[in-house]
Amino acid sequence: MSExxxxxxxxxxxxxxxxxxxxxxxxxxxxxxxxKLHFLEVRDGxxxxxxxxxxxxxxDEVFARGDKLTQETSLIVEGTVKEHGKRxxxxxxxxxxxxxxxxxxxxxxxxPKEHGTDFLMDNRHLWLRSKRQHAIMRVRHTIVKAVRDFxxxxxxxxxDAPIFTPNACEGTSTLFQTDYHGEPAFLxxxxxxYMEAGAAAFGKVYCFxxxxxxxxxxxxxxxxxxxxxxxxxxxxxxxxxxVLAERFLSYVVSRVLESRQxxxxxxxxxxxxxxxxxxxxxxxxxxEAIGILQAxxxxxxxFGDDFGADEETVISNQFDRPVIVHRYPAxxxxxxxxxxxERPELTLNMDVLAPEGYGEIIGGGIREESLETLxxxxxxxxxxxxxxxxxxxxxxxxxxPHGGFGLGIERTVAWTCGLxxxxxxxxxxxxxxxxxx
Length: 437
Ligand code: 4AD
Ligand code: MG
What we know:
alpha+beta; 2 domains; five-stranded mixed barrel; 13 helices; 31% helix; binds 4-amino-1,4-dioxobutan-2-aminium adenosine-5'-monophosphate; binds magnesium ion
């Protein structure tokens, strides 16, 4: 390397250094060689650049070192930034010298050839370096940022919910139990109950963090640990809740379309499908959804049935954008939902189903505000009354109509990226049979 100080730049910024000598620090992504040329594909996390090593420029000794470079060696490359000969808008480095920072001590396990999913999942810590995973994580980042921006710009206060909890929110069958200084505790399934306390304190609140479900199901949409954002609003009606959900979701998708075109292209996502995600979303009742299923290949479906992935796909396929399904039978819903005054066997709840068979990405509704009714519901669901005394206080001291929803980040990433499974939507997935790496 030259003694004079050559600026270190990010590959993402090469367009503003054309004609200049720069240094790029990164890893060798790929290499092609001929007798007089090495084409090094170098990635630095922000981008990938082709670094051209010409024997005539660097001399025999440096060129020979290029022969030995292996995939994922970390290195510093110094060279002149040029516009790419063939591809407009791309840049390359005419290499003057390079230096190895860390050689590989074993052959890198992920080669460009096809690998099985289990193998890739076992090597998740390395798999994250590949183009496709890179694109997905960038979309995820944009979604997370857009989620926060939406609520921050809409008068909501962020109120983080605890991870260790004494009580179940979403039923006792999917609780992870742990020991809390000799007491049993559970990893949170949802921050909702705490957000209800928050809504009485701040009016409009949201929490955003990891949530846990000991789901025994091995499906393409279930994780044991996933991230959920949960707004909760005082004096909200079910109609207001639906409007909030559609405004929110369309905003998040528009931000992805605005800033992640390149990543969506890498993922070969048909973006015309995402462009249709604009309000108003169609709204159908649970009973109308049953009718759709009966008329579309599920004649045996009846009131009281829950929707699995197949059913949700049939319903969502009737629409070109997300669809809101509201007022499910109370018997299949959590204890906290308020009943519909006109049809007490139904709850004032709503699910948003994503298009293209991605299924439920939002679940929410209006909460029971009557102390007496809630006490009965806690009993009927066989929940520990003690653990809910604080929650009942919210009905004792100025009870109020309120509601909100939860959006699962991973299912949202899967849908926007067009992925077949949620395991690729989170850096290190936790699933029924996977706790590592
Ligand atoms: O429908 P869910 O269970 O609703 C709640 O937890 C409410 N307490 C939320 C609220 O009203 N504040 O979960 C909400 C969303 C689902 O629509 C889905 O997107 C996601 O969380 N989700 C999961 N994502 C991945 N893996 C799982 N096992 C998930 N379970 C739920
Ligand atoms: Mg749900």
